[in-house]
Amino acid sequence: LGMPFAGETLLSDWFLADVHMDGYPRPDTDASVHWHRDGVLLIFPIQPGRYRIIGDLPHTDGKSAPTPTLDQVQALVDQRGPAGTRLFDPVWLSGFRINGRKVASYRRGRAFLAGDAAHIHSPAGGQGMNTGMQDAVNLAWKLALVVQGHADGVLLDSYSPERSSVGDEVLKAAERLTSVATLKNPIAQGVRNAVGRLLLGLPSVTHGVADTMSEVAVHYPDSPLNGPGLRGLMHPGERVPPMAGQVPVGAGPAPRFAMFADGTPNLAALAEQFSGLVDPTIRPALREGTISLVRPDGYLACAATQPEPIVAYLAGMANKPTASALVRPA
Ligand SMILES: Cc1cc2nc3c(=O)[nH]c(=O)nc-3n(C[C@H](O)[C@H](O)[C@H](O)COP(=O)(O)OP(=O)(O)OC[C@H]3O[C@@H](n4cnc5c(N)ncnc54)[C@H](O)[C@@H]3O)c2cc1C
């Protein structure tokens, strides 16, 4: 495709071991991080008695990081991790190197990149799979609306800018976390350990970390799809959290925008006019007197107090048969 995967490979080797283990001194739901002067060790419970252990090792010269033996992993756990464990029955032992790489644009003509094909980075923070799935969610409804003939092909142009900026942030965050986790200077290690313990004891910090890791904190403030907003309401491009008792916006085989508004009778006609784009069910207003249009992936598209800006937004998005970007040459 001629899409350079720009970035670098880190100069350290890592191992991954999915093993059975006796003697883990914490509940089987608790992951743990063990910082040692020689490197970091992370232990993630997978199911009762089975764990994923990840750690860094000095860089070797080979083409790829060597696969560790169970004895080597046991020795590393004894050195860096909790005392008194016994590893057995390995399910998967592997060595890997960390790349931080990304394509500049996620689209070339009819080809769209998502997941690790578009961005790869350190597993620190556990964002790779989540980011790839959100790429797919972002692209799927746009493709569906265009392929089904409801939206203009230009809608697809928003995929790369929206997801590429998220990819940039994920790469930066993973890089920062990896640098902190692999500090070699003993004084810096001491500061990291003390500050880490302090911060991770604060509920506001742990909630922030959870929102970031689950990626519900992702927003699209600079999206070309953002329409007009209203002062005092969330901004276009912000995620509208799913509401208890409501079907999630965009659910089902035919993704549609959802309108949130109170008792304006002509809105049903508006939904009918754009029936390929908008769900006929009008949901309760996000704030009294407002009309909000929420994208099929749950982000606010635009908001107004009168229907006209909503009509203008939808008219701009509706299919114009002559201009399908899907058939645009590369
Ligand atoms: C040690 C480690 C720990 C990780 N931990 C986490 C974590 O905790 N949380 C998280 O979110 N992510 C984590 N990740 C990242 C996550 O595994 C990846 O981001 C994710 O698997 C990428 O999914 P993908 O579908 O984009 O690519 P892949 O999983 O690489 O899937 C691509 C598939 O395409 C197939 N394929 C390739 N070429 C062709 C072809 N020509 N024709 C047909 N098929 C082809 C491949 O065989 C493969 O099955 C971790 C990664 C590593 C290395």
The CATH topology of one domain comes to Alpha-Beta Plaits
Q: Taking Cα atoms only, what radius of gyration do you get, to the nearest Å?
A: 24 Å
Low-confidence stretches at least 5 residues in length (pLDDT < 50)?
322-330
Helicity, as a percent range: 25-40%
Shape: elongated
Average of pLDDT: 89
How much β-strand is present in the residues? 15-25%
Give the strand line-up of the largest sheet.
2-3-4-1-5-8
Named once each, the bound ligands are: flavin-adenine dinucleotide
Order of helices and strands: EEEEHEEEEHHHHEHEEEH
The CATH class of one domain turns out to be Alpha Beta
* CATH arch. level architecture of one domain: 2-Layer Sandwich
How many helices? 7
The computed structural class is alpha+beta
Largest sheet: 6 strands, antiparallel
The number of distinct β-strands equals 12
Report the end-to-end length measured between terminal Cα atoms: 10 Å
